[in-house]
Amino acid sequence: MSKIAVVYWSGTGNTESMAKAVVKGAKDKGAEVNLFTSAGFNADMIDEYDAVAFGCPAMGAEELEDSEFQPMFDSLTDKLSGKKIALFGSYGWGDGEWMRIWEENCKNAGAELTSESLIINETPDDEGLAKCEELGASLA
After folding, report:
1. Rounded Cα gap, residues 56 and 76, in angstroms
2. Among 20, 68, 73, 100, which residue's beta carbon has the most beta carbons within 10 A?
3. Residue 60 region by backbone torsions, left for phi larger than 0, else alpha for psi between -120 and 50, else beta
4. How far apart are CA 21 and CA 97, in angstroms?
5. Which pTM value belongs to this model?
6. What is the pLDDT of residue 52?
7. Mean pLDDT, rounded, of the chain
């Protein structure tokens, strides 16, 4: 059985809804899953998991949230080599540039992206939540 962490930051609840659907998708595939906010996860914990899904919305000029999420993520970048990960987040403007940059940074760190990263405009609808469940299943 795979052990998966889903780690997210959410300001409006959109990315939190996505994270919960990712958890459901992984659990439905039989994985053991733990859900964390970015404030509750750190670099020392990543080795406990077979895979990690990271979720963060686009903030500012299409960038990761910089007071909690970005510092947490930066602290574990050195541990991403060979790690199975998935990325997701919501946005309200732009074209997904923050996700493309984030993916590139993860690939440069040696992470193995298990699926296409998922971005959803504003609040996820039923179709969007189903895609989040698929993303979770891809980690299991």
Report:
1. 15
2. 73
3. left
4. 23
5. 0.97
6. 98
7. 96
Q: How far apart are CA 131 and CA 54, in angstroms?
A: 15
What is the distance in angstroms between the CA of the first residue and the CA of the last residue of the chain?
Answer: 8
pLDDT tens for each residue of 44-100: 999 999 999 999 999 988 999 999 999 999 999 999 999 999 999 999 988 999 999
CATH class of 3-139: alpha beta
Enter the tokens of residue 140: 């299991």
- Kindly state the tokens that stand for 71: 């510092």
Give me the residue label for tokens 């080599």. Answer: 81
**What's the token pair of residue 41?**
């996860």
Question: What b/e readout covers 80-97, taking b as 16+ CB neighbours within 10 angstroms?
Answer: beebbbbbbbbbeeeebe
Taking the C-alpha atoms of residue 9 and residue 18, their distance in angstroms, rounded to an integer, is 11
